[in-house]
């Protein structure tokens, strides 16, 4: 093989010489920039802009540009985003506060909190029995089904949480979305001050991770797609589940996009989420802007996501061999 002079060498991967996507994402640009610092120039007949490094150094670059060249177009055809305004996530979550409090307290529909959301307008009373908010929550019902089948202790242990990790993912919002949503939820409902009986049989942390986090993601997708009502929620759930693998690959925690969420932008987003306890959490908010709290749940999320990325990489390698 020899270099085709009609092809711009800048459009080729400097490591494998395959074509780069025409519009690389911020994450791919970030990978190319950081990997370039660990490699050396190595012009060759197939690529005058070629570079050389250990395979372990550049493999992520090649896997990423293949993903963006092959999988990303399919995702775009389905309407899944390849960029998200991360600095707006906090404010969007805060605007869901009323509904999330209703879920936390398991209010009745028709109460101040339980019946305020437009997407619950199609809920009606069956006879004299009033429905509670959790009765309409997909994720709470999944947890209760598991509790019924396995028992409370088995459903709440670490092994079970790993097994059900996929069902609690935020769809195309990916790892980065999961972390940002989790931070906002912990600000609204600090696990250490939430009474366990309120969310039994789960712990406060488990309730956030397995119920509130995917519920927020579902509603974010509904907003993105202009969906409403029960039928809209079901469609959003379908998108969430279908786009989870894409989200993990597209928006990993270490994406270059995260650096674009500056402290000023976060503060601007948070200023829109006015509510009770804002002053009480001010110091906690500042700490959260500087670092991610590495509790057990966070570590679990990252480890599972890391395993999923390895699976995706293995699948990509298998496809290349075929």
Automatic annotation (TrEMBL):
Residues 255-270, 281-292 have a biased composition (Basic and acidic residues). The keyword Cytoplasm applies. InterPro entries: RTC4, RTC4_C. Residues 131-253 form the Restriction of telomere capping protein 4 C-terminal domain. It holds the Pfam family RTC4. It is found in: Cytoplasm; Nucleus. Residues 271-280 have a biased composition (Basic residues). Residues 250-300 are annotated as: Disordered. Belongs to the RTC4 family. May be involved in a process influencing telomere capping. This is Restriction of telomere capping protein 4. It comes from Lentinula aff. detonsa.
